[in-house]
Structures are given as structure tokens and as C-alpha cells.
Amino acid sequence: MTIFISLLSSVIAAFLAHYLATARMKRAELSKFQIEAYSSFTAAAARLAVARRVGDTTNENIDIAALNDAKSRIITCGHAEVVEAMIQFWILGGTLERESEILAFDRLVKVMRTKLGHKAHDILELKVSDALFKLEPATFSFRAGELANKSSQQDASKTGASA
């Protein structure tokens, strides 16, 4: 009788371990697909918005195709709240040219982060849309290199003159 109980408990333990491992693997795969879809969508939207702002339409069809691919992957495997936020962004225009579209995109990014496990308001004060869609970083300048060289040369001439 004890052998039967041991055998039965071993079978139950093996079945339970298999079930839990399979469920964990499915969740991990789904999370991976969601992360890829979300990041592909934000990257394609940012690329398309910046290209339109600078007037570069050479790769517009490729960018639109990438955006639609990511959109379909979000609809297929995304969280319901993310799909809803994406649809709202799309209904508002999806071009990121008006403030309402930028705000909808900002909300979409925040919903994506929340659904991926980040705290709901961890980036509330950050200017996500500025970081995504500003054409150049704040310190970027072609003249900055020239000014840095001039100041370096002036510093060198001052140290050379004082020596």
C-alpha cells in the first residue's frame, strides 16, 4: 500500500511540475513577444515621425509596413489595455503631428510599461514624448565641436603664454 501511495504521489508531483513549467514557459514566451511588439511599434512610430519632420520620405513605405506589422502583433498578443490605448492613438491620427496624438502615444507607452511589470507612475514626471521625438539631443550641435576646439586652443595658448 505504501508503494502505491509513493508511486501515486510521484506521478502527481511529476504532472504538477510539468504543468507549472509549461505554464511558466508560455508566459515567458508571451512576454517576449509582447516586448518585441511594443518596442517595434514605438521604434517604427518614432522613426516615421522623425522622418516626416525632416521631410525624408524615401523609406516611408518601409516604416509604415514596420509600424503595421508591430500593430498587428500588438493586437494578436498584447494586453487588452495596450490594444485599447494603441487603437485610441490610431483613431486620433497616429502621425504624432498634433498634441492629442503625442499625448495618446505617451499614454500608450505608459500603459505598455505598466503591463510589462513596471510601476504605474514610475516615469510620470519624465518627458517621454520629448525623449522619443526630439530630433537631436539637447547638447548636440555642429558648432559645439568648433567651440570646444576654440576653448581648448585658448586654454592651451594661455598655459603656453604663462609658462
Give the helices and strands as they follow along the chain.
Answer: HHHHHH
- Secondary structure class reads mainly alpha
Give the total of beta strands. Answer: 0
Helix content: over 70%
Percent of sequence in beta strands: under 5%
Distance N to C terminus:
98 Å
Could you list the spans in which at least 5 consecutive residues all have pLDDT below 50? 147-152
Compute the gyration radius: what is it? 26 Å
What is the overall silhouette?
A: elongated
> Mean pLDDT, nearest integer?
80
Number of helices: 6
Biggest sheet statistics: none
Protein name: DUF4760 domain-containing protein
Structure commentary:
- The protein has 163 residues and is mostly helical.
- The chain is built from 6 helices and no strands.
- It is 78% helix and 0% strand.
- The protein is elongated and about 80 Å long.
